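User: Before I run my own analysis I want an independent prediction to cross-check against. Here's the chain; please return only the structure tokens and, at the end, one sentence I can use as a sanity check.
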Amino acid sequence: MSLYDCLSVSKDASVGELEQAYQRALDGLPKSGVRGWLIRSLGLDSRIHYAFFVLSNPRRRRDYDRDLRVNSHMSHMYLGY
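Assistant: Structure tokens:
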């Protein structure tokens, strides 16, 4: 799963589209109860934050895209698993 998949955006998404997707992804997560606890404990919300952190910065995004092209079989490393 790429960082683009994590936010459900295309690889040519604008910063505005990334911001909307980021907010939509966070809003879609349960905030309380067992499901909310489970999502936080598994770090699923951290993956969304990290995807936005990388893709919203032009330099980090350029580096990520380059690495994704070169090491497409290793893109999971950016998500920490």
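Sanity check: The chain is about 65% helix and 0% strand.
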